[in-house]
Every structure is written in structure tokens, then in C-alpha cells.
Amino acid sequence: MSDSNTFDPNAMNVGKYLAYRLHQLGVDQLFSVPGDYTSDLLEIIDTYKSPKGDRYLHRIGNCNELNAGYAADGYSRANGLGAVAVTTGVGSFSLLNAIGGSFVESVPVVAIIGTLSNTKLMDEINAGELYHHNVSTEDTNRTVYSPVTVAFERISNPLTAPSQIDAAIIACISKSKPVAIEIMEDCYYMPCANPEGTLSPVPNYESLPVLQGMAAQSAPNKYAAQIVQAIEKAAEAVYAKISTEKPILWIGKEIATRKLQSKFAALQQAIGAPYVTSFLGKAVVSEDNPWFLGMHDAVFTSDYTNSYLKQSTAIIGLGVWNTDLNTFGSKSTETGNITQVFASRDMVKDGENLYVQVSLEHVIDAVMALIQKNGYKSSWQQPSPPTIPTIPAPQTSITYDSFFAVLDQHVNDNHLIVADIGLSSFGGSSSLKINRQDGFLAQNIWASIGWSVPAGLGASFREDVRTFVIVGDGAFKLTCQAVSTMVQEGRNAVVFVLNNKVYGVEQMLLDPAPYKTGSSAPFEEANILQEWDYVSLMNGFSNNSGNAKSAVVNTIGDLESLLEEISCDTASTYLVSINLDERDYPSAWKLFVNK
């Protein structure tokens, strides 16, 4: 540890600088696992306070680095930016999976890696000494993290640290992707310049009026003119579909990533068309809009939603990513034109026509301009709402469908749903009506099972909501220690474990025969789980804390009573085992099972 007599404790240093910059951007929690190359940083985090006596960052200890990374990811999804700190090698390699998911799904996370001091690195290079946790003298973390970050900075000189930290964080918030900042352990306490001003994201593109102005000059900028022409042609393609067809809007993740909810709402209202979401785009806008039809996602599309999709003559994709999950379980071989026209990833595809350097924001703005210029008359009547499922009698055994039907009647805009991948999400929590913008979080492309529990920990630090985690028992076992951290940090999260004693989704993908009606087909041995005692597990995780509650649900009545208890107990962490028959599955999978 550094000797506090050798430096001015009130002076700015590298560790403080980093904490201050994160705090400026709304980060209040730093998820971490102690390690000797990071210990000085964590000491700074624990002792660095504002003039009012408040910590700039609160350090949240985690049971392992993967959980810490998932927690930072969940925190970022719920709050806008997350941060995690680990030691090099054993820590940074364990963290990599979480950062990979954040990169693929465009979640801004700052990964801080503590590494060897300058002196130790020189020992390795010149004296051949190998230090623990270290791979070699190569720049290993940069090599490993470069594919899953948009910036990597190694801080070895405190004089350049401020500019390096600023550059990494600006890249993070500009690209909505992770960055890594590797800091040599002898730099944390070294003095550096004070932070100046605030950090702001750099726009990914010029505004449409600026581009139009550049293109309209007497000596036009030919590159701006090309972009404006592409935007105009793309907008005309979208407008042609909505003005001559019977359109349904299909919205996706980019509506949230690019913060275009209000622009989409204005467009939807202007054309009076129904809309659906992709699973990746679930709840990017509140689902209490009467024009909302549900989720459009291959075999998991409900009969209600399909009845309207069949009436439409044009499905227009806005911000929908073209992924295999959009056609999951169906016989479709489409990998290019997922709709007649769609806009995402700064391009618009209209049949065989492709318009590039065209942002989703520009398209929406240009289409709105065409509507205002040419007018528009909707071809739709407002949809009739779907039928609410009937809840079985209280003594009825709980099933996937009845669990989600009961939960759906309980969830409101004070809840944040964090769902794991698999039967917990597809046809399960995807059926919940989320009446809160961004009130549903799921990792549906990286699809790392177990993500939801520590991500739910991170998301629970959004204080205006209560987090409900929905996870299968197989996925839960990968990251279950995060429940202990929830208790330690006084989070009032609720973790529902869908306990069917098998890796259900893996069995589905391998062979759905065990799920066919009346089947006695065996489960693949690799998919059979050891049963756990979840009540005792919670006692062990919490050391019998009074604010750690557990419950077992076998019937509809059990669940209804428990949800009432949870709503009255706003201070406790809950671990709930939803005991399901091993051959039960969400009915939304029936087309997959019977294909």
C-alpha cells in the first residue's frame, strides 16, 4: 500500500481522476473484485469523497469477475453507463465474456484492469522474471480486449493519464460500446492534472440540416451531397410503403440505443399504423400504447399478433438487427431482406436497393418531412386489445404459462424485468406487457446463460424501480453467488428461478421429443440437473439475514400469495423457486416442438 505521508491526500491523482470522470457521467457504483494490482485503486474509491463528504463512487464487491462484468452491463442498461475493475490476467480473462456481450449488444461499459507496475514490467522484459497473474511481456490485455472494445488505453505515465482516460470514456459513450483502461499499479496515486469541463459523446453523424446546407452550397460538398441523396431516396422508399400499402412498423434495439423513442412515437402517431417489436427491441417504448400488437419473432409470434401481420401489406423495420433469432424455429431461410424495407446499422435496404451512411434518425426525420409535405391518411383502425388469459384455480399446479400470466397481472411500471435467455425469455417473459420504456432487459444475441442474475444486481441500483429477475435453474447455477451480493448491498431484487430440473432450451434444440404430448422420451443425460434446496441456499448466501427471504411455489395460489407478500415487503431480497414439471414448456414453443 502507498504511504499516505508521501503524497498530498487532497491532490488529484490518476485514481481520483478516473472516479471523478465516471461520477460526472452518472456512474455511482463501481463493480469489482479485489486483486493486488487493483488494490490501490479500490482504496482510492473507498476513501475519495466530495466536499460534502459523499463518495464519488461506491465500490460493490462481487464474488467473481464474471459476475462483476455482468453487473456492470446490467447497471449500464438500466442507467446509461457502467464500470468494472479487476486485476490483470486471472481477473481480466474472467471478465472477457461479460465485455464480449456488452460489445455485441452495444452496451457502454468501462473495464478497468490493474496491471504490473512499470518496474515489474521492466523486470520481466530485462531480467526474465515472471510475475503472478501475468501471461508474458506481451501487451496481452490489449490483444485480448481489442476485438470487444472500441478503445484500449494503457496508462503507464500519470502525465498522460487524463487525456487517455478522457479519450477512452468519450469513445465509450459515443459508440455505446465497451472500452478498456489498463492502469499500471504504480500510477494510481501519482499526481495528475485536474479534470476540466465535462465529457460529451461525439455524434456518429452530422445533423441532417447541416448535411443539406453543405450539399446546397454554390460549390456543394460532393460527399455531403451523396449522403443527402441517399437519405432522400431511403426516405422515399419508406414513405412509398406507408403511403401506398397497409403498413405495420417493426421496431428494434436501435430505437433505444440511439435514443429515438420520441421520434418514433411522433412517426407512429403521424401515420396511425400498428407496431410490433423484435425480441431485441422489446419495451424500447412502453407497451401500453393501444397501437402496440406484441412481438414479431418467428414461431414465438402470438396468434393475436399474427392476425394483424396477415392483414398488413408492408412490414417496415426500424432499428431491427438482422439476426438468426428473428427467424428462430421457422422454416424461413431469409438472411438479407427481413422485411420489404428496413433501416438499421446506418443503412436502409429496400429490396435490392441499399442506401449507406444513412442513420435511423435521419430516415425518421426525412420521412416525417415527406408526411408533412405530402400528407398521409391511415389505412388502419385502432386495434382491439388482446384477450387476457384466464388464471386457473388457486390449487392448480404452476406451469410456465400460468406463472407468466399471473406475473403479467402483477407487474407494473414500478418494475424492471431482467430475463435470462431460453425458456425464461422466448415465449415466457417475452409475453409480459411492459408498461415502462426500457422496462425489460435481456441479453438475446450474446445469449450467455446466467447473465440475468448479476445483471439484475447491477440494474437494481436504478432506485425508481424494483428488479424482478427471471432465470432457469440451469442458468442460475452459473452465477448464483450474485444473490449474496444483492443481500450484502441491501437490494430489494426478486429472483424467480424456473425450476424444471433440466437445461430445457438445450433439450429443445437437441431434440424436443420429451416435450411432445404424452411423451416418455428420456432427456439427454447432459441436460439433467442436480436439484438444489433453494430455501437453504438463500440461508447460506445470506448467513440467515432477516432481509433475505426465500419461497417455494408449487401452485397458482402459492404465487399469488407470494406476490402480495413481496409487494408489501419492499426492503428484502427474495429467492423464489418456481417448481415446474420437467416436461412443461411455454406454449409459445408448440410450433417448435411439433414441427
UniProtKB/TrEMBL annotation:
<dbReference type="Pfam" id="PF02775">
    <property type="entry name" value="TPP_enzyme_C"/>
</dbReference>
<dbReference type="InterPro" id="IPR012000">
    <property type="entry name" value="Thiamin_PyroP_enz_cen_dom"/>
</dbReference>
<feature type="domain" description="Thiamine pyrophosphate enzyme central">
    <location>
        <begin position="233"/>
        <end position="341"/>
    </location>
</feature>
<keyword id="KW-0460">Magnesium</keyword>
<keyword id="KW-0456">Lyase</keyword>
<dbReference type="Pfam" id="PF00205">
    <property type="entry name" value="TPP_enzyme_M"/>
</dbReference>
<dbReference type="InterPro" id="IPR012110">
    <property type="entry name" value="PDC/IPDC-like"/>
</dbReference>
<protein>
    <recommendedName>
        <fullName>Indolepyruvate decarboxylase</fullName>
    </recommendedName>
</protein>
<dbReference type="InterPro" id="IPR047213">
    <property type="entry name" value="TPP_PYR_PDC_IPDC-like"/>
</dbReference>
<keyword id="KW-0210">Decarboxylase</keyword>
<dbReference type="InterPro" id="IPR029061">
    <property type="entry name" value="THDP-binding"/>
</dbReference>
<comment type="similarity">
    <text>Belongs to the TPP enzyme family.</text>
</comment>
<dbReference type="InterPro" id="IPR029035">
    <property type="entry name" value="DHS-like_NAD/FAD-binding_dom"/>
</dbReference>
<keyword id="KW-0786">Thiamine pyrophosphate</keyword>
<dbReference type="InterPro" id="IPR011766">
    <property type="entry name" value="TPP_enzyme_TPP-bd"/>
</dbReference>
<feature type="domain" description="Thiamine pyrophosphate enzyme TPP-binding">
    <location>
        <begin position="420"/>
        <end position="567"/>
    </location>
</feature>
<dbReference type="Pfam" id="PF02776">
    <property type="entry name" value="TPP_enzyme_N"/>
</dbReference>
<feature type="domain" description="Thiamine pyrophosphate enzyme N-terminal TPP-binding">
    <location>
        <begin position="12"/>
        <end position="117"/>
    </location>
</feature>
<keyword id="KW-0479">Metal-binding</keyword>
<dbReference type="InterPro" id="IPR012001">
    <property type="entry name" value="Thiamin_PyroP_enz_TPP-bd_dom"/>
</dbReference>
